[in-house]
Amino acid sequence: MKKSRGVLSEKERLSLLVKKIAKQCKSLDELTKKLREQQLQPYYRKELLAGVRLGNRKLRLTTLGVDKSHLKALTREQKRLDGLRCKNQKNRRGREW
């Protein structure tokens, strides 16, 4: 929402940027990587990406406008990819013996 003088606040600019980035991502790791490329500092809760730091404030992804269903899809995909990586590492270890 624009202020009366027509200027976007930092939070609003951040919201637009994060929504744009999140739409392009297919996993939480990819989202984290792209946020860091934009010089944004992600923060975590219970070892999952929860939001972005803006100065001394923490803003959750849902507060910034990222849809909860999209976050769930990113989380599911991340768990699937982590499972595949773990399985692949076990297969490699088995072949070494």
TrEMBL record:
<protein>
    <recommendedName>
        <fullName>Transposase</fullName>
    </recommendedName>
</protein>
